[in-house]
């Protein structure tokens, strides 16, 4: 896909971190970008910076997501690109010591369900809604109408202790990729996922401020280069996945060759 001002994109979670980097990368080559986020101040600031639009969207709300897509399309036209970075989840071990009782407690079904809704179901929601809109577009070269990029995680393959919900739901995101790509092959919409390792996003930078020794240890654990990933490196891969039409049905690690230990 040729990326220029004839193309529109929706980026979820675009107020910060990997979503912001994706929005910035797409805007840098002329793409018209709509940012979906719950952070109004941050999202509007990024939209102003890149000349895009901001729409307050809760990815866990069906009607709200539909309204967000409608508003983005009214502003920028039907998107050919979706980059889905937003997610919400909870952490905890399947069974852990209960400090209050001295016994054990389990990670509740309700907390697991919340994580599944915030990661896996939300990924399907955003991908399917975007694909439905893309189906109406005139095809480009090779019959392509659009490209969907989902955000999984290195934890999809080597989740750590306390990541039973996060890791399994991110693995589920990778599980969406091939069937979605096959479902959408006849309308020319591609689907891929990126599995980022440890990136210098706001939560990790907060660790640097609070516990620099932990941050330095995380950086040293990356085989090469021995640092956290830069959000702009994620954005660069987003551009390539959209430009290169032969990327389809792929789940790609972007992690400096790290393989996460149990803890």
Automatic annotation (TrEMBL):
The keyword Oxidoreductase applies. One of its GO terms (molecular function) is oxidoreductase activity. Pfam families: adh_short_C2. The keyword Oxidoreductase applies. Keywords: Oxidoreductase. It comes from the Bacteria. This is SDR family NAD(P)-dependent oxidoreductase. It comes from Sphingorhabdus pulchriflava.
